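Hi R.,

Here's the chain you asked about this morning:
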Amino acid sequence: MIVAVAVVSVLTTIFSATAAAAAPDNLVVTANRADDDPLSLSGNVTKLTNAALQLTAATHPYEISVRVPGTWLSRNSGQEQLTAIRSPMLTGPGSCGAFLVLEDGIATRPTGFCNVNQLFEVPTEFADSVEVIRGPANTWYGSNGLHGTINTRLPQPDGVATRAATLETGSHNFWRGRYQQGGTFGTTAYTSGVLLDNDGGYRDDSGYEQFKGYFKGRQRRSGGTLDFSVSLSEIDQETAGFITGPLAYKDLATRFSNPNPEAFRKAGSRRASLRWSPAETGAWRHEWRAYARNSDMDFLQHFLPGQPLEENGQTSGGLLYTARTAIAEDGELALGIDTELARGYLKETQENPATGSPFIVATRPVGKHYDYRVNSGLLAAYSNLRLPLTQRLEMQAGVRAEYLRYDYDNKMVSGNTQDDGVTPCGFGGCQYARPEDRQDNFRNIAPNLGLSFRLDEANTLFASARRGFRAPQSTELYRLQRGQMIADIRTEKLNALEVGWRHRTDTLAVELTAYLMRKKNFIFRDATDANVSDGRTRHAGVELSADWQPGENWYLGITGSHAKQEYRFTRSADLGEEIARGNDIDTAPRTLASARLGYAYSRGRAEIEWAYTDSYFTDAANTTRYEGHQLLNLRVLFDISRTLTAGLRLNNLTDEVYADRADLLAVTSPPTERYFPGHPREIYVSIAWRQ
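And the predicted structure, written out as tokens:
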């Protein structure tokens, strides 16, 4: 962490001054990798503007996710999170990699090496905007854009010399310091930022320390424009596990406890990219992007018997090429190639004997469980056509073809003996199975078709049909359990239909959508602990987002979704789960909603927010429910002077007692209710200075 702080500090010192230039609030970039008018799009998109992000001043991504319909970023412990976008809260095999996380349009992790918590690697605290696409990604993005895409857009260097600093403090020994600087150095415009924060945690032994930083530069040359960026993160976290027992989150003696004080997570990430946009000299416009990434993490798997330590990491790089040309009148054809090479490793070692039943003790031995390397290569080609069919009707069509190859190298003895390769485990073998060295290939084609009909200058109707896919992740293929030496699993595929209406004027913006999605080859772990891909699910819902400014100072924002997400197969799964066709998928609230009433004037802004999470089943058999909850939050920013701004945030204003996530562990007798208890009322104050 000291090295990371030094790198960004040197960059910000050498170059000299900006907080960043915001792209126009009425444009979005994620849908087509270029600035677009939302009224012209044939699919949904939500853009969280810089003003909304500054007011929210989120300490966790959950706090901004309530502004996006159909989206729930559940808080676990510290900076951990699980994601739901037009989906249930996915956990275990099949969950990691269902959502595509981007930073300035580039995936933050290589394909096949995801982490369900990977948003903590992204410096969203500095974001100029955050854009979310719900449902399958289009032809511009490939594997992992299955249920949704989140793109964090960092500030762009504009050459304006500015400095800004913010200090915050709050409940549970929280403090956060943030510094941004930008300007020019010679012919280079730049923007940069450094963040340090510390949280003592509202539960016992659950604090964290965190660092994030970024640097972006831009040079305009006679031959074109060169952009370059660096992004860094480090986190050192004490982790709190589930509390257990009927309605344990309501028990004051249990609510703030931590049954796993020994648990921890340490993780770091480093990303760099270059973008070259040659000056337009002919019919085609070209763009080249090159990137390199590295991340690593150590964490104690406190939720497993024996609490093994996992160590993993990835190093990757790639090249993205796009060419665009105008066709017909106001039409465009885009062609592109994406390439990527990656190398990852995973080790798992158990230091202490497991405790529990004789079966658990015998099948989870002390020693090394896994030690492997995986090299991967990805090649994708895509095309996208935007073509006006009439003055008002426009078609968007595209297709993406992608090839992914894994080369797995087991650094241990294969099989499911103990790590000496000789000693067997009782009860038919050790829990952890290690395949022989092997190679796996996945080929996928994803088409999409969309139509947008401009009713008038303020209203558009749109419809789309899309396919998303998610190739199996490396851990699903090679980190196997007893009884499975080869994971014969297929790519998850999701077919989606969507229709919607979008309205935009100076005072009112509305997006109303309805969708139907069917997923096949859903990956999960069955009752024998084998990774299989023969599940099917169905997802249908309606979503609304509306922002209205009835007067000069007042504004009202509403976000809501109602969805039915169900299993379309019957099967016994691991941990005692009994999946039945037609049942609601567990941890899938049917209704999510929020509303914000605000007052903005020349000296500041105040906003009260209501956030609602519906009740949901906590098990696949639909035998138990979490009752749901609703929260109130208050936020105020006030300009003390032209250079100083004071801030106040009160989260969970009414001190609601709730659970961030509820779960039922069916494998125990009787089944065990488990919870991540929700945060109590919290207060944060800040002072911000800008040049």
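Residues 1-24 have pLDDT under 50 and may be disordered.

Let me know if you need anything else.
M.
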